[in-house]
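Cross-posting from the chemistry board since nobody answered there.

I work mostly on the small-molecule side, so proteins are not my area. We synthesized potassium ion and want a rough idea of how it might sit in this target. Sequence and SMILES are below. Is it possible to get a predicted 3D structure of the two together?
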Amino acid sequence: MRKQVDLFCVLSLFGAILKWLSVPLSVPFIYSIFGRENPLVFLIPIAVSLIAGLLLERLDSNPQLGLRETFLLVSLSWLGVALVGGLPYVLAGAGTVANPVNALFESMSGFTTTGATVMASISFGTHSPELMFWRQITQWLGGMGIIVLGIAILPRLSVGGSELIEAEAPGTQFDRITPRIVETARILWLLYVILTIILGILLYGSHLVGLSPQMDFYNAVAHALTTMPTGGFSPEAKSIAAFSSTVQWIIIPFMFMAGTNYALMWRAFTGSPRKLYRDTEFIFYSLILVFTTAIIFVMVSGNTFEKTQDAIRHSLFQVLTIVTTAGYASHDFNTWNSMAKTLLFMMMFIGGCAGSTGGGIKVFRWIVTIKMFFKQLFTTIYPRAVQSIRVGENIIKNKTARRVTIMILLYIVTFLIGALIIEIESYRIGLDLETLEIMSASAACIGNIGPGFGIVGPMNNYLAFSPLSKTVMVFLMWAGRLELFTLFVIFIPQYWRN
Amino acid sequence: MRKQVDLFCVLSLFGAILKWLSVPLSVPFIYSIFGRENPLVFLIPIAVSLIAGLLLERLDSNPQLGLRETFLLVSLSWLGVALVGGLPYVLAGAGTVANPVNALFESMSGFTTTGATVMASISFGTHSPELMFWRQITQWLGGMGIIVLGIAILPRLSVGGSELIEAEAPGTQFDRITPRIVETARILWLLYVILTIILGILLYGSHLVGLSPQMDFYNAVAHALTTMPTGGFSPEAKSIAAFSSTVQWIIIPFMFMAGTNYALMWRAFTGSPRKLYRDTEFIFYSLILVFTTAIIFVMVSGNTFEKTQDAIRHSLFQVLTIVTTAGYASHDFNTWNSMAKTLLFMMMFIGGCAGSTGGGIKVFRWIVTIKMFFKQLFTTIYPRAVQSIRVGENIIKNKTARRVTIMILLYIVTFLIGALIIEIESYRIGLDLETLEIMSASAACIGNIGPGFGIVGPMNNYLAFSPLSKTVMVFLMWAGRLELFTLFVIFIPQYWRN
Ligand SMILES: [K+]
Ligand SMILES: [K+]
């Protein structure tokens, strides 16, 4: 073990990542040449990412990434990309998002695929189509980042039991050899790209055949970009509620897929659909969705929605959007009865499947926890018995199970501390919030969900909070996306010592 | 290990406990001879406890209590005592509590020192002073039971890290030899009795000197009986808000003591007050109280309370009542602003100190959890390092730490499942509840706190819920009081097999 964290190595590799940010930034730049926005809004960030990236890269000509350096690299990359990716909001100078803290919030919300917004006015009257398109792109990039994180980085870091994520490509055993990981990442990126394209085609297709007048080409691409990463940004102020029921039905299966393990999905699509029925997490995930949709359906049908088909569609859509952490809205669920809202709030703590682009605690961690309950009950009566936990065909080591339980507790404690700070800060600035509003704001940020309830509802925004609250929320989104430990380790003194 | 659970042994020892219930039942019985209630209301339960107790005791002339039997004995005892102790409510036939499910709820709420009520009318117009006095006694008995549970039973059962509870009497090391445990229990019971008497004298004394006109002899005894067990029942509908500020100031230090480790308190009173400052849990407990009181004070002073002294008193009182799980009210905190309520709600998950009569998760478990966070962060960077956790002078074993984290998670999951069932059931019967109401009802039951927010607020009651919801709440109170595992193990199939 080296004596100190190799900062030059970390900065050099961060530079290598940062310079590539110029490529996606060129999309709105080119768009702006033919459009409304001043091209400098994107050209300056392109220059910043290229120059800073290339300069940083020179700090270490042969960077050797160790374990400790990886934590810093991942954490720094997400923050650094969010900072540079937030420049267009500041440079465009339009609306509330031009404020630097707000711009960082919006950008972090994008790259972490959270979908929480501080734009007071989501309309082309305030913001150019180019800037709104960049906002969509940030989520799509965030989703790509998460796939790499889930396959190549987290399993290696053994963070919160993340080594359990089975990310093998067809026919390959998951191991730590780099070419394999690169190959797996490529395959899953391909899947991600293909599903994005199919969704875009379906959305625009429904428009062409007259089933969704609002879903023009721009919107089709924009929403294709934010569905597979479970992002939730929309250039429409009313989110998916602005579109026809056809559009909502198209998005539903894609949200479902976005919340499943991408490796599992790849195998299912490439000849082994039976793998799905044998995957404990997938079964659990599906059962949770069916069960909670049924309850929500009963609670909203007949009162909020007169037609049964509306009640089914909106129940399913909202349950999916919360569990997968997509964060879209097909209806303003703040107008639903408080019982349905309570259930949706509880579901904010489930999260997608491991190996998906979804955030939150994740279904596999809950499965491990439930198994741990039974194991602990068993060893309480038979103290000398040694019992191992199995999830599907995998035997879970004690060490891994401990990581999982501690991760969930840390998640809950971080969520509560976040809620507490937001609460005290909001009180200080005279913002009177209900319990559900405060709690859901913190839960929606750490879970990378986006909208919550009340003031942070799907037709609302996070603008009213103080700069300190927003900074806490940025931290929550960042920490939640990196499964807490990846970020938190760099804050303990022992990380920097030795 | 024996092949099957020795049911006769368990029932015999349960009988031995049950027959003793006739002694406290004689108090309201004698009272009723000179009073208003039909003496049969107490005579029948006395007969039931004596006859059933003596008959059950005969099932096994030489009961040998094994580990597995202990779990069943403890769980069965709390339920059985609650059932027989609830008979007077049914037999008195007055008010809402005469319904059998309600009577069980009220009785379980008493013996678990929860303090949640289903009495629609808390007044001598509806209920006799004798019956209301029995209600107070059930909590005092519950408190005695918890002291025995904490000293003699839980450490032996190694439930949820409870073996960490340091229950040593002065000069003695805690071990498993029965005479020592009996001696420790006697000492702590003595402390419990002495503090109850002192509180009673202080309360009645304040009445005699004219500082609390409402606090007559009956009320002084009644409230002395429910403070040290962190019970919270009151024969006054307005709880402690019915009394003068002097009474509230008298009760404050006794609630504080009720929430601390009784063994630590004994040592502090008998010559080693410095032990307090060296006890990590006590320091944490005190800091939490000071910190949260300060925040609540800021939030309620100037608006809810015009006078600073009122704001200080009520903030401190309510913080203590929630953290120690006493559940009294010096003011209807439902009228406080939602920020203060949110904070009080979060504090429902702290709980008293280990070895106190308080319920909930308990401070020592949170301390272990926080230490585990740092340990896990450390081992994330240095996977091969072996680091042990210390709390004060104690080194915590991995096994114990795991029990603690799993206990907290099981607590949270049980609370959420409870809330979910209560929510669905309430929806079914047309009761429209806010998130905070549902959540706090479940949290107040499993944490043995008593009142929650809204419909279950301190000036309200649990009557409106369906019988199924109330049964779930009875289960939550029961499970919470027995630190979950003690009760849950008897529900896994492996408990009954082998
Ligand atoms: K999202
Ligand atoms: K209580």
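Reply from a structural biologist on the board:
Welcome over. Reading the output above for you: Residues 7-253 of chain B form one domain. Chain B touches chain A through 60 residues (CB under 8 Å). Happy to explain the token format if needed.
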